[in-house]
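User: I'm putting together a teaching handout on how multi-component assemblies are represented. Below are the sequence lines for each component of a complex, exactly as they appear in our records. Could you produce the 3D structure of the whole assembly as structure tokens, so the students can see both representations side by side? Please keep the chain order the same as the input.
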Amino acid sequence: MGSSLHVDMTLSSRVELANLVHAAAEEVCRLAGIDEDTMMNLGLALREATVNAIKHGNRMVEDKPVLVGFDLKADRLEVSIKDQGSGFDFDHTADPRLPENIEKTNGRGLFLMRHFVDEVRYTHVPGSGTTVSLVVKLPRRRRRGRKR
Amino acid sequence: MKANTRDVGKVTIIDLNGKITMGKGDLILRDAVDGALKDGKTRLLINLASVSYMDSAGIGELVACFKRVREKKGIMKLVNPEGRVQDLLALTKLDEYFETYKSEPEAIASFAA
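Assistant: Of course. Below is the structure of the complete assembly, with chains in the same order as your input.
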């Protein structure tokens, strides 16, 4: 296949659909020739982002869609997750590893996302929603058909 | 995910199999722990040998279960976290929060200490 690929998904805000997104991420990674470890990491990060979009962004209102887009380029795979929520303080989320937070039962999703992928970007447009983008950088040799 | 509960002496072992993730695995874990507590079991050992991974909800549920057991004056420990599960516990520093063992006999013996 070529070095580019694009997949769009529109989900109802149902938490169980995070499984579908996770599976889609794995398949996109397979098509792209991405290694299993990276594939697993992306799948987990994407699962977190999707659940956040459903639970916090769209407040579990089923009719509110979450848009997931996979964009494979020569040097990276970008996955965007867009909800209709009012955003959050992306730059100041609490560190779940601190003693005062360790017993909290939530608040680890963004921390895990940041660990599992190379870049996490955040955009909020008032009235439109919030987009979290996950970026996985790809090695140059991933390009198919080119010999060095 | 599936949960199977068995007793070894005074310790109740909950064997988990699958993924501890939001919406299903986390609830199965919760039900298994709550079921044991309802039966008066307060020495719980969560066997993670067959858990392939957890998401943040699954991790949160482990913490929630630990706190609920503690409220009932009980003890909850972990045994056999493997691969990604072990990595996740270390990453979130929960390997320092939970008492975790690499063998079931060792874990069971620790309850007597």
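A couple of points students might notice: Strands of chain B lie at 2-8, 11-20, 43-54, 75-79, 100-101. The first helix of chain B runs from residue 25 to 38.
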